Amino acid sequence: MREMKKDTFPVEEAIPSVMQALGHRGTGVLVAEPGAGKTTRVPLACIQEEWLGEKKILLLVPRRVAAKSAAHFMAAQRGEQVGDTVGYRIRLEQKISDRTRVEVVTTGVMLRMMQQDPTLDQYGLVIFDEFHERTLDGDLALGLIWDVRQVLREDLRILVMSATIAAEAVSELLGGAPVIRSLGRTYPVDRKYVPGPGTCDKELLDLIGQQIDQAYRTHTGDILVFLPGMKELKYVQQQLNVRYPLELGEGVLRCYLLHSSLSIEEQSLALKRCAAGTRKIVLATSIAETSVTIDGIQVVIDSGWVRKPQFSPRTGLSQLITTRISKAAADQRAGRAGRQGAGLCYRLWNEEMHHALNAYDEPEIRHADLISFTLELAWWGLQDASGLSLLDQPSSSAMIQARELLHLLGATDDQGKITEHGKDLAALGIHPRLSHMLLSALSRGWNVHEACDVAVVLQHQSHFSGGSYMTLHEIIKAFQDGPDERTYSQFRAESLRLQQQLTIKGLYEQEYEQKKSQISYDYGMLAAMAFPDRVAKNRGDGTFLLRSGRGAALARTDRLQHAPFLVAIQVEMGKTTSSIRLAEEVKEKQLLDMFEQQITSVCRVRWDEEKGKITGRLQQHLGAMVLSDTPVPLDQLSSERIVEAVYEYVTTGGIEQLSWNKKSRQLQQRIQFMHAHDPRWPDVSDEGLLKRGREWWEVQLDGLTNLQQLKQINVWELLQSTLDWEQSRRLETEAPVDFEVPSGSRIRIDYSDPDQPVMAVKLQELFGLSQTPTLGSHRIPVTLHLLSPAMRPVQITRDLKSFWEQTYFEVRKDLKGKYPKHPWPDHPMEAQATRRTKAAMEKSKDGLLKRK
DNA sequence: CTCTCCCT
Question: Which Gene3D superfamilies match (predicted)?
Answer without folding.
Answer: 1.20.120.1080, P-loop containing nucleotide triphosphate hydrolases (3.40.50.300)
